[in-house]
Amino acid sequence: MTEHQLSLAINGRERQLADRLVVFDPTGATPATRSESVVVVGLGYVGLPTAYALRSLTAQVTGYDISEQRLRAITDGEVDLPDADRRGLAGALAAGSLRLTADPAVLSEADVVIVCVPTPVDDEHEPDLSALRSACEEVVSRARAGQVIILTSTTFVGTTRRLLVEPLRARGMEVGADVHVAFSPERIDPGNLDHVQRETPRVVGGVTPRCAQRAARVVRRMTDEVYLVSSPEAAELTKLYENIFRAVNLALANEIADACGELGLDPIEVTIAAGTKPYGFLGSFPGPGVGGHCIPCDPHYLLWQLSEPVPLIEQAMRSIDQRPQRVVRRVVEMLAEAGVDHSGARVLIAGVTYKAGVRDLRESPSLPIMTGLRRLGIDVHYHDPLVPSLTLPDGTRMTSEKTPRGRDWDVTVIHTAHPGARYDWARDCPRVLDTTFQFDAVPHRQVL
């Protein structure tokens, strides 16, 4: 077990508080057996890497997903995984160590069931629990004695008891004796090879101590460090707190960038300089908004649940929600400064995924940016080598410009710069808006 230092800004007392961590010790637990079969429910950005990580230490791993289209995409290798993992996935499927199915009957056959379904929010920022509720109902209806059931989907505090524990008890099953239930939030960072599962600690909160031990034994197959907390609720709020912190920090980074713009300073330089302090600071870089499966969504699960206002979190989420419209206004300003009527102007969005190096469009700021520009009568196109086509929220279908020429556009907006992609064509564009604050390939670029 490697020593893990807490990431806390508490005046250097991290090592003292580290003693309060309850470390799962696999030597004192019932030994794990390769013969245990595992079914992973949901094969999205969390479920697929989870199933893949388990296959080397488990005799049989089955990925279950209700989407036949998703299963075909996985079989064909059309997945958002690093190249090495994509090759390994193909090998695992060919060897049969990882199976795929849309048949829920596998749930009753498994020794371990891990639920990894998405938990988005709707247009009103209300939690959309449809996929999670449906998955848990299926798991509960097919649960059998001896199973370990682990929920990993980020959700509101109390979900594990409401959607798993109480329905299981209604079936006459005693949690902690007949079945073992726990919550262990995912910690997967798509597209970031610096944060691999094996080296990222995980937290487990069991309904009973025995539940925690049984679940931790499974989670330990994916990571070298597992920490136990007192309950599923503690683990559920742990995950929400992690992503709420990121949301508040990113909202602050954007505001600091705005302040830097007014003061004539470089926010990247300022952030890196502040980051030289070895305690009390954890910086983020500004951008066109916040996207992905977690940060724009997860804080709303806490806001939705609480009866009392939490103004800091509420303001941070409003700031995040409004950020793409700042990009829209900045484009219009650049056109006006150049004497170009924005109605009918041609604008190219370079990179539309929420994050560099991934194909994921969920909650990407590019979508409201393109929608906002189109509403003003601007002719909007995009270029992204990872996204051949997309559909805007209003139903408009768009295809990527494969070989854009800079001079064809009135403004190019650098939204996401993918590693390895070429953007030298942007030098020929008369006006380039860099929303990443780090695209220095074009000398005449302007920042957001």
How would you characterize the overall build of this protein?
It is built from 13 helices and 16 strands. It has 448 residues and is of the alpha/beta class. The chain has two domains: 14-236, NAD(P)-binding Rossmann-like Domain (Rossmann fold), CATH 3.40.50; 311-447, NAD(P)-binding Rossmann-like Domain (Rossmann fold), CATH 3.40.50. The protein has a nine-stranded mixed sheet with strand order 1-9-8-7-6-5-2-3-4, sandwiched between helices. Strands 11-10-14-15-16 form a five-stranded parallel sheet, with helices on one face. It has a two-stranded antiparallel sheet with strand order 12-13. The two termini are 45 Å apart.
Structural class: alpha/beta
Q: What distance lies between the first and last C-alpha atoms, to the nearest angstrom? A: 45 Å
**Major beta-sheet overview:** 9 strands, mixed
CATH architecture of the largest domain: 3-Layer(aba) Sandwich
Q: Approximately how much beta-strand content do the residues carry?
A: 5-15%
How many β-strands, per DSSP? 16
Q: Which class of the largest domain in CATH terms?
A: Alpha Beta
Mean pLDDT: 94
The Rg value, from CA coordinates, equals: 23 Å
Q: Provide the low-confidence segments as ranges.
A: none
Number of helices: 13
SSE string: HEEHEHHEHEHEHEEHEHHHHEHEEEEEE
The proportion of residues forming helix, as a percent range, comes to 25-40%
